[in-house]
Write a structure and sequence with these properties.
The protein is an alpha+beta fold and 417 residues long. It contains 14 helices and 14 strands. Strands 1, 2, 3, 4, 5, 6, 7, 8, 9, 12, 13 and 14 form a twelve-stranded mixed β-sheet that branches. Strands 10-11 form a two-stranded antiparallel sheet.
Length: 417
């Protein structure tokens, strides 16, 4: 057993020395494998990070919560079916109120919300970046969307009835305008030139689907509709009383929304139900499409790299014919020659695989960090990449290794240096 281990170690060292003798050629061949592995690892690392973010983001709605909105549920802008829904009528304030009336006590809560993207908040001489979301909501917005208060109070019924100039800040906005030590409560901020009194600050919630959930200013929805020049569709958040009642609540909400929209029996729904399941399905469609594309690119790149490995090994056999003849003449068995050339092909392939895994995981996580997604190491894909690279090294190195081990020693010794 010891002699066999020593023999394998010596063969491995000899293989490494032979590859090192042709550094540029070995490096270029390794790089070919690395490109193929890089493409699949980078893409799958980024997708796995997104998948974790989706799982985290789903908790923002809660297990018993769903939304009614104009557009289909999507994870990142666009999405299947969105083009067909652009021409739908917006969900109006009157329709939302009718919906709430028709639902009655069939749901635990019904929250109304409308948003305006890319605005800026100001306090004194401090301003936020122009990426704050101005949100109009009612008193049910916070509980329906899983927001807790860090200080102050939530919007209440009087704020909604009187279209008050009150505001509750997301933690990111509060930190930008007031820092860590200053109390924002009862201070006046300005958003788009209009003044609002801060009555509360939400606890930090983190990112979901690559976007911060804390970079917003919540004002009464009635004030939003009356004072913000924005024509947009409302979204309605519905919370079922329990997980058991969730499916029935969804069905009741569809019926109530159809009544509110004045749809006839044969007319299709002109609104969407955004549930946890619809978000997962939307993400899976994107993930499968990108995954298939990455697999095809990686397969072609690895196939090309495998041909490159075979080519370099055949050239190596030709260049080292005399060396092989000498080794055979002093008693080296054919299996040792076969093993050495197989190990050389395997080292080239696995070396490229390790390089591709390292750079691919790094690139995938850079994308994840750029979009506020969690850093992740896809160990399953990494192990699969090493296995595939090993298979390629053996498959494409077998013929050159067999050719080297079957050289006639006498003919090999006659070969010129």
């Amino acid at each position: 057993m010891t002699m066999r281990t020593t023999e394998i170690r010596e063969t491995l060292v000899q293989a490494a020395i032979s590859l090192a003798a042709n550094k540029l050629r070995s490096a270029l061949t390794t790089l070919g494998v690395a490109v193929g592995v890089f493409s699949i690892i980078a893409v799958m690392t980024a997708l796995d990070a997104v998948e974790r973010s989706v799982a985290t983001g789903l908790s923002s709605l809660g297990a018993n919560t769903f939304q009614i909105q104009k557009y289909p549920a999507t994870v990142f802008g666009g999405g299947h079916g969105r083009d067909e829904s652009v021409n739908r009528q917006d969900i109006t304030w009157q329709e939302a109120l009718l919906f709430r009336k028709f639902m009655g006590q069939k749901a635990a809560s019904v929250g109304l919300v409308i948003t305006r993207q890319a605005t800026q908040a100001r306090f004194s001489n401090r301003t936020t970046n122009p990426d704050v979301i101005l949100t109009g909501g009612d008193e049910n917005f916070a509980p329906s969307n899983g927001f807790d208060l860090a200080s102050g109070r939530n919007l209440n019924g009087n704020d909604i009835i009187h279209a008050g100039d009150t505001a509750v800040l997301g933690s990111e906005v509060a930190e930008s305008l007031f820092g860590q030590g200053e109390n924002p409560l009862n201070r006046q901020i300005k958003v788009e030139g209009k003044a609002y009194t801060v009555v509360g600050v939400f606890s930090k919630k983190g990112a979901a689907f690559g976007q911060s959930q804390d970079n917003f200013v919540l004002i009464p929805i009635t004030r939003f509709l009356g004072h913000v020049n924005e024509k947009s569709s409302l979204a309605i958040t519905v919370e079922a009383r329990s997980q058991k009642e969730y499916p029935a609540t969804v069905d009741q909400a569809v019926g109530a929304m159809r009544l509110a929209r004045g749809l006839k029996v044969r007319e299709p729904n002109d609104f969407e139900i955004r549930t946890n399941e619809s978000l997962v399905e939307s993400f899976r469609e994107i993930q499968n499409t990108i995954g298939v594309g990455a697999f095809i690119i990686s397969f072609m790149a690895l196939l090309t790299a495998g041909v490159g490995i075979m080519n370099i090994m055949l050239v190596s056999v030709t260049e080292r014919t005399r060396e092989i003849g000498i080794r055979m003449s002093v008693g080296a068995p054919r299996r040792t020659i076969l093993r050495q050339f197989l190990l050389e092909a395997l080292l080239l392939s696995i070396g490229g695989g390790i390089l591709g895994i390292a750079t691919g995981a790094g690139a995938g996580n850079l994308v994840a960090i750029r979009f506020n997604l969690p850093v992740i190491f896809p160990w399953g894909w990494m192990m699969a990449a090493i296995l595939v690279c090993s298979t390629i090294g053996i498959a494409f190195g077998l013929f050159p290794a067999w050719k080297a081990s079957n050289l006639d020693p006498v003919e090999a010794l006659r070969a010129s240096k």
